[in-house]
Each structure stands twice: as C-alpha cells, then as structure tokens.
C-alpha cells in the first residue's frame, strides 16, 4: 500500500457515495473528530467522491493532519479503489463487491434516509460474516476508533454455476 | 301484445345463451390457467439437444452485473439466439452485454453478433414517478412487452428484477395460456436481498409464474421453501 510522496508514506482513505446523494456520509467524514481519528490510525489523505450531494467538504493540503480532496463523479472508481488503503462506501452492491474483489478493507455506511432501506440487509450480512465493517453516519468515528482490520476475512469470489446447472437440468440439457 | 311477449322470450333466450357461452369460456379458460400453473415449475421431461431461444432481461446497475455473471457460465450454443432487453432509460446495460457477447465471439467461432440481439423496453414506472401517471405508463409498458414477447417467442426467460421483467413475464404467461409458446421463466433474486424478497421477486414467487426461483442467501430459502439456494453469484 502507501506510496511515498515528499518523503512521507501516503495512506489514502477513499470515500464513495456512487451516483447517490449522501450528504450525511460526506459531512460525517469531514468532521474534525473523524479526521483526527483517521490521522491517529496513520492515514495521510482523505479523498471523497461526493456524487450528487450538496455538502462541499473543506479542501486542505494537510501540512498538519489529514489532506482532504474531493470530486463529484468519475466514469470508473477502480483506480481510486486500487490506490486506497481504506474505503468508506455507501451500501450499494456495486461498490461493495468491487471493493471486496480487490481485497481492500471496507467500511460500509448505511444511508438511513432512503425510503426502501433494504440496502442495510446486504451490508449487515457481510459484516456478520466479517468481510467488512458496517456503520451509520453517527457512529462512524466510533467504528474507525475500534476497527481491527486484521480480523476481516477475504470475500470468496461468487459463482453462478449452481444456477446454470439448475437451468440446464430443468431444460433437459445433459450435465456437463 | 303477443309480439311483445315473443320478443321478450327471444331476449331471455338470447341472454341465457350468452350466459351459457360466457360461462363455458370462463370455465375453459380457468381450466387452462390451472393446467398451465400446474405445469409451471415442472422440469421439461424431454432431453433437449436443440438450442433454445433465450430472453435475458437486464435490470440496470447491480441487477445487470449479476445477470451477466450468470450469462458468462451458460453454454452459448445451448441458449441461442439470445435476446437482451433493457429499459429505455438504461443506456449502460446493453453496452455491457455487447462487450460480453463480443468477448465470446472468438471462443464460439460465430460471425459478428449474429446470435445476440439487443432491444429496449418502456418502463412501467420511473423512480419517483407519481402513482396516478404510472397507470398510463404501465399500460403502455404492458402493450410493448406483449409485442416484444410475440415477436421473440422465447423458450427461456432469465430475469432478476427490478420491475422491468414483470410485464414481460406476464406476457409470456399469456402466450403459455393461449398455447402459442411454452416458455420457462427463471428468476434469480438479487444478492442485495438477504432477509426479504424484492417486490418483483415476491410477485413471481407468489403467482408461481417463475418456473424456478433462485435465492443467494440461505435465510431466504428457509422463508420461501419453493426457492432454491444457490450461493452468491457476485
């Protein structure tokens, strides 16, 4: 992880809200307490993909503490995920599985303002199975303070062959 | 006076004839519906060697990603030709399906994309649309789905939500009842559904329109015993 820039080792936290509007998360990571907690954990940079939200985080160069930067959208977040040491994401299944496939530590923050909030189901299930950490905007700082990234278990890649087998059998195709 | 009585007698005759015809039709149709529902979910007891025309409904975003993961492991020469359908407002899904199809051209030795077609369908309801106007748009979506299903007459329908697949499955069911084309509907509930089925999943499960119903979490299988647990596909 950490590449060296100006003689210091860079450890980036990447925050992504996808195509949604999730100001509570952007505002949450931009609070002094969360930024100090991340600094204490050894992170040097905070990069926020803020989507359609209206809350604008305060950019800082990070002479003292965390360097903060943000952007709205990018056609692909793959490169940002790859170069990050920790990812804090909204609960969309796209970002969750893209991050897990890269085997990166992930904190999923559930958006409680969504009406049909089935998204928390997936994040909580994967947190129970220790593939990621699940938080709410209000307990993000606590989650970061107590997190033990060593305890996370790599996510095994998915496999659709059981469905293919079921379909083949139903249709009368011979088993391969 | 006599004439009036005769004409009312005639009317009564006509009305009762009409009643008999209508009830006969209702009985025949109900028996047919019951028979079709009984046969849904039963494996086709023929060993198929010929390829089956396959309709693949892409539901956008995570739904499309999951569906394409399934398509990757299906034998292309069996599920052939393949018709991909996505919502009018979704311009990413068909592109992703094209990329997948192009990558398999070299493996199968097919020329161009001759075995894959790409189509779009009107959606019954956009996110945030009011329920009143969605009655009209649902009717349009229903008609469009009927037209596409009659044109394609698929033998296999693969879908995994959200709502886009419902009018298509309903139209395919009507074709089954009419005896025009027997299709097998396979529904894969999204990986994001751990404890509860989605609305489209619930509709296809309860109505028994889906011949096979797959779920990706064991909790769901316990709650919906006719579903098959197949593990995560993402």
Distance between the termini of chain A: 42 Å
- Summarize model confidence as the mean pLDDT of chain A: 92
Element order of chain A: H for helix, E for strand = EEEHHEEHEHEHEHH
Q: Taking all residues together, what is the mean pLDDT of chain B? A: 90
Helix content of chain B: 40-55%
Taken as a percent bin, the fraction of beta residues of chain B is 15-25%
Oligomer: heterodimer
- Given helix and strand content, the structural type of chain A is alpha/beta
Q: What is the CA-based Rg of chain B, rounded?
A: 22 Å
Spans of chain A of 5+ residues with little confidence (pLDDT < 50)?
Answer: none
Largest sheet of chain A: 6 strands, parallel
Q: Strand order within the widest sheet of chain A?
A: 5-4-3-6-7-8
Beta strand count of chain A: 8
GO molecular function (chain A): hexosyltransferase activity
Pfam families (chain A): Glyco_tran_28_C (PF04101)
Protein name (chain A): Glycosyl transferase family 28 C-terminal domain-containing protein
GO cellular component, one term (chain A): UDP-N-acetylglucosamine transferase complex
Please provide a written account of the structure.
The complex is a heterodimer of chains A (176) and B (234). In chain A, strand 1 and strand 2 form a beta hairpin. Chain A has seven helices and eight strands, in the order E-E-E-H-H-E-E-H-E-H-E-H-E-H-H. The model of chain A has no long low-confidence stretch (mean pLDDT 92). Chain A has 176 residues and is α/β, with parallel strands linked by helices. The radius of gyration of chain A is 18 Å and the shape is elongated. In chain A, helix 2 runs parallel beside helix 6 (140-146). With 234 residues, chain B is an alpha/beta fold. Chain B is 50% helix and 16% strand. Chain B is built from seven helices and seven strands. Chain B has helices at residues 2-39, 61-73, 93-108, 131-152, 165-178, 199-206, 218-223, and strands at 52-58, 79-87, 116-121, 156-159, 184-188, 212-215, 228-229. In chain B, strands 3-2-1-4-5-6-7 form a seven-stranded parallel β-sheet, with helices on both faces. Chain A binds chain B through residues 92-94, 97, 118-119, 121-122, 124-125, 158-164, 166-174, 176, and chain B through 43-48, 52, 61-62, 65, 69-70, 72-75, 78, 156, 158, 184, 186, 188, 190-196, 198, 211-212, 214, 217, 228, 230-234. Chain A: It comes from Aristolochia fimbriata. Chain A: Residues 12-161 form the Glycosyl transferase family 28 C-terminal domain. Chain A: InterPro entries: Glyco_trans_28_C, UDP-GlcNAc_transferase.
């Amino acid at each position: 992880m950490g590449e060296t820039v100006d003689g210091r080792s860079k450890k980036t936290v990447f925050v992504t809200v996808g195509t949604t509007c999730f100001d509570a998360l952007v505002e949450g990571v931009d609070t002094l307490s969360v930024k100090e907690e991340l600094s204490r954990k050894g992170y040097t940079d905070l990069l926020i993909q803020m989507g359609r939200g209206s809350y604008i985080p305060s950019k800082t160069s990070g002479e003292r503490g965390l360097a903060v930067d943000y952007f709205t959208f990018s056609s692909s977040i793959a490169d940002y995920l790859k170069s990050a040491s920790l990812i804090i994401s909204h609960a969309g299944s796209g970002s969750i599985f893209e991050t897990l496939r890269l085997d990166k530590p992930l904190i999923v923050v559930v958006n409680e303002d969504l009406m049909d909030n089935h998204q928390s189901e997936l994040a909580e299930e994967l947190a129970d199975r220790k593939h990621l950490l699940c938080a709410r905007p209000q307990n993000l700082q606590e989650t970061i303070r107590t997190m033990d990234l060593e305890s996370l278990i790599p996510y095994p890649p998915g496999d659709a062959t059981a469905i293919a087998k079921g379909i083949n059998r139903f249709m009368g195709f011979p088993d391969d | 006076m006599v004439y009036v009585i005769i004409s009312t007698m005639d009317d009564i005759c006509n009305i009762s004839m009409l009643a008999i015809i209508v009830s006969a039709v209702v009985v025949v149709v109900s028996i047919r519906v019951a028979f079709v529902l009984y046969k849904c979910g039963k494996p086709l007891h023929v060993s198929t060697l010929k390829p089956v025309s396959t309709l693949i409904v892409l539901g956008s975003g995570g739904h499309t990603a999951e569906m394409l993961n399934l398509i990757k492991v299906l034998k292309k020469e069996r599920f052939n030709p393949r018709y991909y359908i996505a919502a009018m407002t979704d311009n990413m899904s068909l592109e992703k399906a094209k990329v997948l199809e192009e990558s398999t051209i070299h493996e199968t030795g097919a020329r161009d994309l001759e075995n894959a077609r790409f189509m779009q369908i009107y959606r019954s309801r956009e996110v945030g649309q009011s329920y009143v106007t969605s009655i009209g748009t649902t009717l349009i979506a229903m008609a469009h789905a009927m037209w596409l299903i009659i044109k394609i007459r698929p033998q296999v329908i693969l879908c995994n939500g959200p709502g886009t697949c419902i009018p298509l499955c309903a139209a395919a069911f009507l074709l089954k009842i009419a005896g025009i084309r027997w299709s097998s509907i396979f529904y894969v509930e999204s990986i994001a559904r751990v404890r509860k089925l989605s609305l489209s999943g619930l509709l296809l499960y309860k109505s028994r329109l889906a011949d096979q119903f797959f779920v990706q979490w064991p909790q769901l299988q316990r709650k919906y015993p006719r579903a098959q647990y197949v593990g995560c596909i993402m």
